[in-house]
Amino acid sequence: MELTDLVGHRFVTDSREVKPGDVFVAIKGNRVDGHDFVKQALQAGAFAVVVERDLGLPNQLIVPSTVGFLGMYASKILEKFNPKIVGITGSNGKTTTKEIVAEVLSAEIRTFKNEGNLNSEIGLPLSIINSYRGEQIVVLEMAQRNVGDIEYLCKLFPPNIGVLLNVGSAHVGVTGSVNEIFKGKWQIVENSKQALVNFDDERMRCGNCKYFGTKGGDYVLKERTFDGRSTLLTFETIEGEFYYSLPGFWTKAMATSVLVAFAVADMLDILFNPIRLLSFKPLKGRFNIHTCGKAYIIDDTYNASYESFKHGIEEVKEHFPRPAYAVVGAMKELGEYSKHYHEMLSNLLEEVDGVVVYDKEEESKDITPSNLIFRSDKQEEIVEFLKKKILTSEFSGTLYFKASRAVELDKIVNELLENSNK
């Protein structure tokens, strides 16, 4: 079987997702080897399988590395159309920024973005192979778990503009240290024709850089005000001030994503058209604001790092009614730094009126603020406490939920919202 035989077919790496006509790519992971599921994929109707060893099948394509094959194939697809590529990375806010940048650019020019958070050496190529249709602009979110991941993705899909949003402690347990995280993220700057980086981080300085930020730079978020219905943003550049009013509440992080979109459009010489942002909604679990009776419930449960906790609590303190309670759980993938960052989180949580800890993951044992009012490792006990002790009919304050995804704190949010709607 030849590579040309596979053109036009959907590629999948999970045998459970195979549909008739798909190409199954067998990937050997740390715990599971996709080669063990080739038979299952064929029974589900796979048109062909891409493998690393000869399985004696008429419809097999043997390659040295199936992961490398995916990257190479996706790279060749983009090479054929030669689009302008915008690569986006950072410790926090990558997906939201990618979505906002793509929304802005697509109002003026055909724009492709990788789906959801398919942002790894496997997910990103899959997204391009299955969904790219020759768009002139490609916006790619690039993830890092290990130093070298960003460089690998940039070599496959060389950015015309590489965006580095921020560098924090997320995945420090995997990467080894914050310095190593920075080194890895900085590879997007080193491997892009132009770079757009965060002026507010003094580590981010380079010759081919443009800067966005709140303290200075080429593109500055000068002001953000919320009038109860809309958020007014003021951007400042060398050409003067620009004003935009967007419906609803936009966090500082989301406003910064709009600023990045403004900057990227300018660098690509494309009109900044925010029309599609008028109906933009925050992605699920990213500071979603709900009302429950007189109270506010803020669902920020998609993921968590110390830095994202800090930003979230600042938003709650500045814009939402007191008393404000934080319902929190563990931050994952911190390794030997786990105790340190959970102790820092404990200090940060002193700024709210009370803390409830969901002890689903063992790391949360190190969350011990003095304003702790309840903790449990049982979901039903957390829900019962919140309903009986805080979310009474008289409560008109704020409940802020945040933890790493593994904690599944979103299930508690959903249960509370479902009960309130009955």
From TrEMBL:
Pathway: Cell wall biogenesis; peptidoglycan biosynthesis. Residues 285-366 form the Mur ligase C-terminal domain. It catalyses: D-alanyl-D-alanine + UDP-N-acetyl-alpha-D-muramoyl-L-alanyl-gamma-D-glutamyl-meso-2,6-diaminopimelate + ATP = UDP-N-acetyl-alpha-D-muramoyl-L-alanyl-gamma-D-glutamyl-meso-2,6-diaminopimeloyl-D-alanyl-D-alanine + ADP + phosphate + H(+). The keyword Transmembrane helix does not apply. GO terms for biological process: cell division; cell wall organization; peptidoglycan biosynthetic process; regulation of cell shape. Keywords: ATP-binding, Cell cycle, Cell division, Cell shape, Cell wall biogenesis/degradation, Cytoplasm, Ligase, Nucleotide-binding, Peptidoglycan synthesis. Transmembrane segments: none annotated. Residues 13-72 form the Mur ligase N-terminal catalytic domain. The keyword Iron-sulfur does not apply. Its EC number is 6.3.2.10. It comes from the Bacteria. One of its GO terms (molecular function) is ATP binding. Residues 88-203 form the Mur ligase central domain. It is found in: Cytoplasm. It is an enzyme of class 6 (ligase). GO terms for cellular component: cytoplasm. Involved in cell wall formation. Catalyzes the final step in the synthesis of UDP-N-acetylmuramoyl-pentapeptide, the precursor of murein. This is UDP-N-acetylmuramoyl-tripeptide--D-alanyl-D-alanine ligase. It comes from Fervidobacterium islandicum. The gene is murF.
